[in-house]
Amino acid sequence: MENKIYTSSDLSATFVERIFVLAEERKFSELKNVLSDVQAPDVAEILDECEPKERTIIFRLLSKEHAAEVFAHLEPESQ
Description:
Elements: H1 13-24, H2 28-36, H3 40-49, H4 52-60, H5 64-73
């Protein structure tokens, strides 16, 4: 099974809401898998919309390499 890389055009409100729900429901394994397929600028955009607690949870689920890429795209106040 091939991994799909999600781009900005794929990030519908429903998709973003799914990410928030997975975080709230503490389904971290599933959330980690979903996030690994989302490009760094798009993860940064999602994180910018999160509450600080959710932002921390989501960011910690990223691989080190992906987290570094995402961090570079975050708004300064979100870093």
